[in-house]
Design goal:
By secondary structure, the protein is α/β, with parallel strands linked by helices. Helix content is about 35%, strand content about 15%. The protein has a domain of about 220 residues: NAD(P)-binding Rossmann-like Domain (Rossmann fold). The structure holds nicotinamide-adenine-dinucleotide and uridine-5'-diphosphate (UDP) (2 copies). GO terms for molecular function: UDP-glucuronate decarboxylase activity.
Protein backbone atom coordinates (compact mmCIF):
# COMPACT_ATOMS: atom_id res chain seq x y z
CA UNK A 1 0.00 0.00 0.00
CA UNK A 2 1.42 3.41 -0.88
CA UNK A 3 1.64 6.08 1.78
CA UNK A 4 -1.40 8.17 2.22
CA UNK A 5 -2.74 10.97 0.18
CA UNK A 6 -3.57 14.20 1.97
CA UNK A 7 -7.11 13.23 2.90
CA UNK A 8 -6.71 9.58 3.84
CA UNK A 9 -4.65 8.42 6.78
CA UNK A 10 -2.68 5.19 6.90
CA UNK A 11 -2.75 3.96 10.46
CA UNK A 12 -0.59 1.28 12.08
CA UNK A 13 -2.25 -0.80 14.81
CA UNK A 14 0.12 -3.13 16.67
CA UNK A 15 -1.67 -5.96 18.47
CA UNK A 16 -4.45 -5.51 15.92
CA UNK A 17 -5.51 -9.17 15.87
CA UNK A 18 -6.32 -9.04 19.57
CA UNK A 19 -9.51 -8.17 21.40
CA UNK A 20 -9.18 -4.38 21.58
CA UNK A 21 -7.05 -3.98 18.45
CA UNK A 22 -9.58 -5.67 16.18
CA UNK A 23 -12.40 -3.40 17.42
CA UNK A 24 -10.20 -0.35 16.92
CA UNK A 25 -9.41 -1.44 13.34
CA UNK A 26 -13.12 -1.81 12.56
CA UNK A 27 -13.74 1.77 13.68
CA UNK A 28 -10.72 3.15 11.76
CA UNK A 29 -11.84 1.42 8.55
CA UNK A 30 -15.42 2.58 9.06
CA UNK A 31 -14.27 6.17 9.14
CA UNK A 32 -12.24 5.77 5.96
CA UNK A 33 -8.67 5.22 7.17
CA UNK A 34 -6.27 2.65 5.75
CA UNK A 35 -5.02 0.20 8.36
CA UNK A 36 -1.81 -1.80 8.69
CA UNK A 37 -2.28 -4.44 11.38
CA UNK A 38 0.95 -5.78 12.90
CA UNK A 39 0.65 -8.77 15.22
CA UNK A 40 2.70 -11.87 16.08
CA UNK A 41 -0.51 -13.78 16.96
CA UNK A 42 0.77 -14.69 20.45
CA UNK A 43 -2.65 -14.09 22.03
CA UNK A 44 -4.40 -12.62 19.02
CA UNK A 45 -6.54 -14.63 16.68
CA UNK A 46 -6.88 -14.35 12.92
CA UNK A 47 -10.63 -14.98 13.35
CA UNK A 48 -10.88 -11.47 14.87
CA UNK A 49 -9.82 -9.93 11.56
CA UNK A 50 -11.01 -12.59 9.08
CA UNK A 51 -13.97 -10.41 8.11
CA UNK A 52 -11.50 -7.80 6.77
CA UNK A 53 -9.86 -10.10 4.24
CA UNK A 54 -10.33 -8.61 0.80
CA UNK A 55 -10.81 -5.07 2.10
CA UNK A 56 -8.37 -3.04 -0.04
CA UNK A 57 -7.79 -0.59 2.82
CA UNK A 58 -6.68 -3.35 5.24
CA UNK A 59 -3.33 -5.14 5.40
CA UNK A 60 -2.05 -7.72 7.92
CA UNK A 61 1.64 -8.22 8.71
CA UNK A 62 2.82 -10.99 11.02
CA UNK A 63 5.65 -9.39 12.99
CA UNK A 64 7.01 -9.17 16.54
CA UNK A 65 7.28 -5.57 17.78
CA UNK A 66 10.46 -6.50 19.68
CA UNK A 67 12.11 -6.32 16.24
CA UNK A 68 12.54 -3.10 14.25
CA UNK A 69 9.76 -2.24 11.83
CA UNK A 70 10.26 -0.15 8.73
CA UNK A 71 6.92 0.94 7.28
CA UNK A 72 5.36 4.22 6.17
CA UNK A 73 2.33 5.35 8.15
CA UNK A 74 0.70 8.56 9.42
CA UNK A 75 -0.23 7.48 12.94
CA UNK A 76 0.58 4.59 15.27
CA UNK A 77 -1.60 2.84 17.88
CA UNK A 78 0.68 0.61 19.99
CA UNK A 79 -1.44 -2.14 21.57
CA UNK A 80 0.84 -5.17 21.19
CA UNK A 81 1.19 -6.93 24.54
CA UNK A 82 -0.52 -9.89 26.17
CA UNK A 83 -3.07 -8.48 28.62
CA UNK A 84 -4.44 -11.37 30.62
CA UNK A 85 -2.47 -12.53 33.70
CA UNK A 86 -2.29 -16.16 32.52
CA UNK A 87 -0.84 -15.06 29.20
CA UNK A 88 1.55 -12.37 30.38
CA UNK A 89 2.85 -14.69 33.12
CA UNK A 90 3.40 -17.55 30.66
CA UNK A 91 6.69 -16.02 29.42
CA UNK A 92 7.29 -13.03 31.71
CA UNK A 93 10.64 -12.07 30.19
CA UNK A 94 9.01 -11.87 26.77
CA UNK A 95 6.21 -9.74 28.28
CA UNK A 96 8.66 -7.12 29.56
CA UNK A 97 10.52 -7.22 26.24
CA UNK A 98 7.28 -6.68 24.33
CA UNK A 99 6.41 -3.62 26.39
CA UNK A 100 9.89 -2.10 26.50
CA UNK A 101 11.58 -3.12 23.23
CA UNK A 102 8.22 -2.81 21.48
CA UNK A 103 7.84 0.75 22.78
CA UNK A 104 11.39 1.68 21.74
CA UNK A 105 10.90 0.36 18.22
CA UNK A 106 7.50 1.98 17.73
CA UNK A 107 8.79 5.27 19.18
CA UNK A 108 11.81 5.09 16.87
CA UNK A 109 9.41 4.56 13.98
CA UNK A 110 7.25 7.52 15.08
CA UNK A 111 10.37 9.67 15.45
CA UNK A 112 11.52 8.90 11.90
CA UNK A 113 8.03 9.46 10.49
CA UNK A 114 7.25 12.48 12.73
CA UNK A 115 3.82 10.99 13.37
CA UNK A 116 1.63 10.81 16.49
CA UNK A 117 1.87 7.64 18.56
CA UNK A 118 -0.71 6.23 20.99
CA UNK A 119 0.16 3.89 23.84
CA UNK A 120 -2.25 1.41 25.42
CA UNK A 121 -1.11 1.70 29.01
CA UNK A 122 -3.02 0.24 31.90
CA UNK A 123 -4.58 0.77 35.30
CA UNK A 124 -1.99 -1.81 36.43
CA UNK A 125 0.52 1.05 36.63
CA UNK A 126 -1.32 1.90 39.88
CA UNK A 127 -0.66 -1.61 41.24
CA UNK A 128 -2.66 -2.38 44.39
CA UNK A 129 -3.73 1.23 44.78
CA UNK A 130 -3.68 3.09 48.08
CA UNK A 131 -5.63 5.98 46.48
CA UNK A 132 -9.23 5.30 45.48
CA UNK A 133 -10.58 6.02 42.91
CA UNK A 134 -7.37 6.27 40.94
CA UNK A 135 -6.37 9.68 39.58
CA UNK A 136 -3.65 10.10 36.96
CA UNK A 137 -1.46 12.03 39.41
CA UNK A 138 -1.22 8.97 41.71
CA UNK A 139 2.16 7.24 41.26
CA UNK A 140 0.94 3.80 42.21
CA UNK A 141 1.83 0.93 44.50
CA UNK A 142 3.51 -1.73 42.37
CA UNK A 143 5.57 -4.68 43.56
CA UNK A 144 8.67 -4.59 41.31
CA UNK A 145 9.55 -8.28 41.78
CA UNK A 146 6.23 -10.13 41.90
CA UNK A 147 4.47 -12.31 39.34
CA UNK A 148 2.52 -9.35 37.89
CA UNK A 149 5.61 -7.11 37.67
CA UNK A 150 6.59 -8.14 34.13
CA UNK A 151 3.36 -6.56 32.94
CA UNK A 152 3.03 -3.68 35.42
CA UNK A 153 6.67 -2.56 35.32
CA UNK A 154 6.92 -3.19 31.56
CA UNK A 155 3.97 -0.84 31.03
CA UNK A 156 5.41 1.70 33.51
CA UNK A 157 8.73 1.69 31.66
CA UNK A 158 6.89 2.10 28.36
CA UNK A 159 5.18 5.20 29.78
CA UNK A 160 8.61 6.53 30.81
CA UNK A 161 9.90 5.98 27.28
CA UNK A 162 6.86 7.70 25.76
CA UNK A 163 7.32 10.80 27.89
CA UNK A 164 11.11 10.88 27.36
CA UNK A 165 10.64 10.68 23.56
CA UNK A 166 8.12 13.51 23.96
CA UNK A 167 10.50 15.68 25.98
CA UNK A 168 13.72 14.72 24.18
CA UNK A 169 12.52 14.38 20.59
CA UNK A 170 9.27 16.37 20.57
CA UNK A 171 7.08 13.38 19.70
CA UNK A 172 3.30 13.82 19.87
CA UNK A 173 2.56 10.98 22.30
CA UNK A 174 -0.94 9.96 23.40
CA UNK A 175 -0.95 7.73 26.48
CA UNK A 176 -4.14 6.24 27.91
CA UNK A 177 -4.44 4.08 31.01
CA UNK A 178 -7.05 1.44 30.27
CA UNK A 179 -9.19 -0.03 33.05
CA UNK A 180 -10.72 -3.54 32.84
CA UNK A 181 -12.52 -3.81 29.50
CA UNK A 182 -14.71 -6.61 28.20
CA UNK A 183 -16.83 -7.48 25.20
CA UNK A 184 -17.12 -9.68 22.10
CA UNK A 185 -13.84 -11.14 20.72
CA UNK A 186 -12.28 -11.77 24.10
CA UNK A 187 -10.65 -15.17 23.70
CA UNK A 188 -12.65 -18.09 25.13
CA UNK A 189 -9.52 -19.12 27.06
CA UNK A 190 -8.42 -15.55 27.78
CA UNK A 191 -8.50 -16.14 31.54
CA UNK A 192 -9.81 -12.71 32.49
CA UNK A 193 -12.76 -12.60 34.81
CA UNK A 194 -15.62 -11.58 32.50
CA UNK A 195 -14.86 -14.16 29.81
CA UNK A 196 -14.12 -16.85 32.41
CA UNK A 197 -17.43 -16.34 34.22
CA UNK A 198 -19.50 -16.20 31.02
CA UNK A 199 -17.87 -19.28 29.48
CA UNK A 200 -18.20 -21.19 32.76
CA UNK A 201 -21.86 -20.18 33.04
CA UNK A 202 -22.70 -21.12 29.44
CA UNK A 203 -20.96 -24.48 29.79
CA UNK A 204 -22.64 -25.22 33.13
CA UNK A 205 -19.28 -25.36 34.94
CA UNK A 206 -18.46 -23.95 38.36
CA UNK A 207 -17.91 -20.19 38.47
CA UNK A 208 -14.42 -19.69 39.94
CA UNK A 209 -14.13 -16.72 42.30
CA UNK A 210 -10.54 -16.12 43.40
CA UNK A 211 -10.38 -15.14 47.06
CA UNK A 212 -13.61 -14.12 48.80
CA UNK A 213 -14.87 -12.12 45.81
CA UNK A 214 -14.84 -8.88 47.80
CA UNK A 215 -12.15 -7.35 45.55
CA UNK A 216 -13.51 -4.76 43.11
CA UNK A 217 -13.09 -3.87 39.46
CA UNK A 218 -14.86 -1.33 37.23
CA UNK A 219 -15.76 -2.84 33.87
CA UNK A 220 -15.84 -0.85 30.64
CA UNK A 221 -17.61 -2.10 27.50
CA UNK A 222 -15.27 -2.24 24.51
CA UNK A 223 -17.18 0.22 22.27
CA UNK A 224 -16.93 2.94 24.90
CA UNK A 225 -13.21 2.36 25.26
CA UNK A 226 -12.52 2.52 21.53
CA UNK A 227 -14.42 5.81 21.28
CA UNK A 228 -12.04 7.12 23.96
CA UNK A 229 -9.02 5.88 21.94
CA UNK A 230 -10.16 7.74 18.81
CA UNK A 231 -10.84 10.95 20.73
CA UNK A 232 -7.40 10.71 22.32
CA UNK A 233 -5.62 10.31 18.99
CA UNK A 234 -7.63 13.21 17.56
CA UNK A 235 -7.10 15.45 20.60
CA UNK A 236 -4.98 18.54 20.01
CA UNK A 237 -1.17 18.59 20.03
CA UNK A 238 -1.18 19.69 23.69
CA UNK A 239 -2.95 16.55 24.93
CA UNK A 240 -0.52 13.76 25.80
CA UNK A 241 -2.00 12.10 28.87
CA UNK A 242 -1.71 9.88 30.68
CA UNK A 243 -5.51 9.82 30.75
CA UNK A 244 -7.62 7.15 32.45
CA UNK A 245 -10.18 5.48 30.19
CA UNK A 246 -12.64 3.19 31.90
CA UNK A 247 -16.09 2.90 33.40
CA UNK A 248 -16.22 4.27 36.94
CA UNK A 249 -19.05 1.97 38.07
CA UNK A 250 -17.40 -0.37 40.56
CA UNK A 251 -18.51 -3.93 41.36
CA UNK A 252 -17.20 -6.69 43.56
CA UNK A 253 -16.18 -9.85 41.76
CA UNK A 254 -18.97 -11.68 43.60
CA UNK A 255 -21.52 -9.17 42.27
CA UNK A 256 -20.18 -9.79 38.77
CA UNK A 257 -20.57 -13.56 39.22
CA UNK A 258 -24.16 -13.09 40.42
CA UNK A 259 -25.00 -10.86 37.44
CA UNK A 260 -23.58 -13.39 34.98
CA UNK A 261 -25.54 -16.21 36.66
CA UNK A 262 -28.76 -14.17 36.49
CA UNK A 263 -28.29 -13.08 32.86
CA UNK A 264 -27.34 -16.53 31.53
CA UNK A 265 -29.91 -18.40 33.63
CA UNK A 266 -27.23 -21.02 34.35
CA UNK A 267 -27.40 -23.64 37.08
CA UNK A 268 -23.64 -23.18 37.68
CA UNK A 269 -22.48 -22.84 41.28
CA UNK A 270 -19.95 -20.38 42.65
CA UNK A 271 -16.77 -21.97 44.02
CA UNK A 272 -13.79 -20.17 45.51
CA UNK A 273 -10.13 -20.62 44.67
CA UNK A 274 -7.04 -18.97 46.22
CA UNK A 275 -6.47 -15.30 45.42
CA UNK A 276 -3.40 -14.96 43.17
CA UNK A 277 -0.36 -13.12 44.54
CA UNK A 278 -0.48 -9.29 44.33
CA UNK A 279 -4.08 -9.28 43.06
CA UNK A 280 -5.26 -5.65 43.50
CA UNK A 281 -8.08 -5.33 46.08
CA UNK A 282 -9.85 -2.38 44.48
CA UNK A 283 -9.87 -0.51 41.20
CA UNK A 284 -11.98 2.36 39.89
CA UNK A 285 -10.97 5.11 37.49
CA UNK A 286 -11.43 8.79 38.13
CA UNK A 287 -12.40 9.95 34.62
CA UNK A 288 -12.55 13.70 35.25
CA UNK A 289 -9.56 14.30 33.00
CA UNK A 290 -11.00 12.22 30.15
CA UNK A 291 -14.23 14.22 30.30
CA UNK A 292 -12.31 17.51 30.27
CA UNK A 293 -9.76 16.71 27.57
CA UNK A 294 -11.65 14.26 25.35
CA UNK A 295 -14.71 16.27 24.48
CA UNK A 296 -16.98 15.08 27.32
CA UNK A 297 -16.11 11.42 26.77
CA UNK A 298 -17.81 9.07 29.15
CA UNK A 299 -19.02 5.47 28.98
CA UNK A 300 -22.51 4.92 27.56
CA UNK A 301 -22.95 1.17 28.00
CA UNK A 302 -23.68 -0.06 31.50
CA UNK A 303 -22.69 -3.46 32.82
CA UNK A 304 -25.98 -5.31 32.30
CA UNK A 305 -26.28 -4.28 28.65
CA UNK A 306 -22.60 -4.94 27.95
CA UNK A 307 -22.79 -8.37 29.58
CA UNK A 308 -25.87 -9.23 27.52
CA UNK A 309 -24.02 -8.40 24.29
CA UNK A 310 -20.95 -10.34 25.42
CA UNK A 311 -23.00 -13.36 26.48
CA UNK A 312 -24.69 -13.37 23.05
CA UNK A 313 -21.24 -13.40 21.41
CA UNK A 314 -19.96 -16.30 23.52
CA UNK A 315 -23.19 -18.30 22.99
CA UNK A 316 -22.57 -18.15 19.24
CA UNK A 317 -18.84 -18.77 19.53
CA UNK A 318 -19.26 -21.84 21.76
CA UNK A 319 -21.96 -23.26 19.50
CA UNK A 320 -19.77 -22.93 16.38
P1 LIG B 1 -5.11 -9.29 23.56
O1 LIG B 1 -4.22 -10.31 24.20
O2 LIG B 1 -6.40 -9.74 23.00
O3 LIG B 1 -4.34 -8.49 22.42
C1 LIG B 1 -2.95 -8.25 22.44
C2 LIG B 1 -2.44 -8.46 21.02
O4 LIG B 1 -1.03 -8.18 20.98
C3 LIG B 1 -2.60 -9.90 20.54
O5 LIG B 1 -3.20 -9.90 19.25
C4 LIG B 1 -1.20 -10.44 20.52
O6 LIG B 1 -1.01 -11.48 19.59
C5 LIG B 1 -0.39 -9.20 20.22
N1 LIG B 1 1.02 -9.30 20.65
C6 LIG B 1 1.50 -9.71 21.85
N2 LIG B 1 2.83 -9.64 21.86
C7 LIG B 1 3.23 -9.17 20.64
C8 LIG B 1 4.48 -8.88 20.04
N3 LIG B 1 5.62 -9.07 20.71
N4 LIG B 1 4.49 -8.42 18.77
C9 LIG B 1 3.34 -8.23 18.08
N5 LIG B 1 2.11 -8.49 18.60
C10 LIG B 1 2.06 -8.94 19.86
O7 LIG B 1 -5.34 -8.16 24.67
P2 LIG B 1 -6.24 -6.83 24.64
O8 LIG B 1 -7.17 -6.92 25.77
O9 LIG B 1 -6.76 -6.59 23.28
O10 LIG B 1 -5.15 -5.74 25.01
C11 LIG B 1 -4.63 -4.83 24.04
C12 LIG B 1 -3.74 -3.81 24.74
O11 LIG B 1 -4.51 -3.08 25.70
C13 LIG B 1 -2.56 -4.41 25.49
O12 LIG B 1 -1.43 -3.58 25.33
C14 LIG B 1 -3.02 -4.39 26.92
O13 LIG B 1 -1.92 -4.32 27.81
C15 LIG B 1 -3.87 -3.14 26.96
N6 LIG B 1 -4.87 -3.19 28.04
C16 LIG B 1 -6.00 -3.95 27.93
C17 LIG B 1 -6.93 -4.00 28.98
C18 LIG B 1 -8.20 -4.77 28.89
O14 LIG B 1 -8.97 -4.76 29.86
N7 LIG B 1 -8.52 -5.42 27.80
C19 LIG B 1 -6.67 -3.27 30.15
C20 LIG B 1 -5.49 -2.54 30.24
C21 LIG B 1 -4.60 -2.47 29.18
N1 LIG C 1 13.21 1.86 14.53
C1 LIG C 1 12.30 1.11 13.81
N2 LIG C 1 11.77 1.66 12.66
C2 LIG C 1 12.14 2.87 12.20
C3 LIG C 1 13.06 3.63 12.94
C4 LIG C 1 13.58 3.09 14.11
O1 LIG C 1 11.94 0.01 14.19
O2 LIG C 1 11.64 3.28 11.14
C5 LIG C 1 13.77 1.28 15.76
C6 LIG C 1 15.27 1.16 15.66
O3 LIG C 1 15.58 -0.19 15.39
C7 LIG C 1 15.78 1.58 17.01
C8 LIG C 1 14.55 2.09 17.76
O4 LIG C 1 13.51 2.16 16.82
O5 LIG C 1 16.30 0.49 17.73
C9 LIG C 1 14.75 3.43 18.39
O6 LIG C 1 15.05 4.35 17.38
P1 LIG C 1 15.77 5.72 17.71
O7 LIG C 1 15.96 6.43 16.42
O8 LIG C 1 15.03 6.44 18.77
O9 LIG C 1 17.12 5.28 18.39
P2 LIG C 1 18.52 4.81 17.80
O10 LIG C 1 18.26 4.17 16.46
O11 LIG C 1 19.30 6.05 17.74
O12 LIG C 1 18.98 3.83 18.83
N1 LIG D 1 -10.86 -13.49 38.92
C1 LIG D 1 -11.72 -14.42 39.49
N2 LIG D 1 -12.02 -15.55 38.78
C2 LIG D 1 -11.53 -15.78 37.54
C3 LIG D 1 -10.66 -14.82 36.95
C4 LIG D 1 -10.35 -13.69 37.68
O1 LIG D 1 -12.20 -14.24 40.62
O2 LIG D 1 -11.86 -16.84 36.95
C5 LIG D 1 -10.56 -12.26 39.69
C6 LIG D 1 -9.09 -11.91 39.77
O3 LIG D 1 -8.48 -12.55 40.87
C7 LIG D 1 -9.15 -10.39 39.95
C8 LIG D 1 -10.39 -9.99 39.16
O4 LIG D 1 -11.17 -11.17 39.01
O5 LIG D 1 -9.36 -10.07 41.30
C9 LIG D 1 -10.08 -9.43 37.77
O6 LIG D 1 -9.21 -10.34 37.13
P1 LIG D 1 -8.73 -10.16 35.62
O7 LIG D 1 -7.67 -11.18 35.38
O8 LIG D 1 -9.91 -10.12 34.73
O9 LIG D 1 -8.12 -8.69 35.57
P2 LIG D 1 -7.04 -7.91 36.48
O10 LIG D 1 -6.75 -8.67 37.72
O11 LIG D 1 -5.84 -7.81 35.60
O12 LIG D 1 -7.70 -6.64 36.77
Amino acid sequence: MPRLSANRRRVLVTGGAGFLGSHLIDRLLERGDEVLCVDNLFTGDKSNIDHLTGNPRFEFMRHDVCLPLHVEVDAIFNLACPASPIHYQHDPVQTTKTSVHGAINMLGLAKRLKCPIFQASTSEVYGDPAVHPQVESYWGNVNPIGIRSCYDEGKRCAETLFFDYHRQHGLDVKVVRIFNTYGPRMHVADGRVVSNFIVQALQGNDITIYGDGGQTRSFCYVDDLIEGFLRMMDAGPDVHGPINIGNPNEFTIRELAEQVIALTGTGSKIVTQPLPQDDPMQRKPDITLAKQQLNDWEPQVQLKEGLERTIAYFRKKLAA
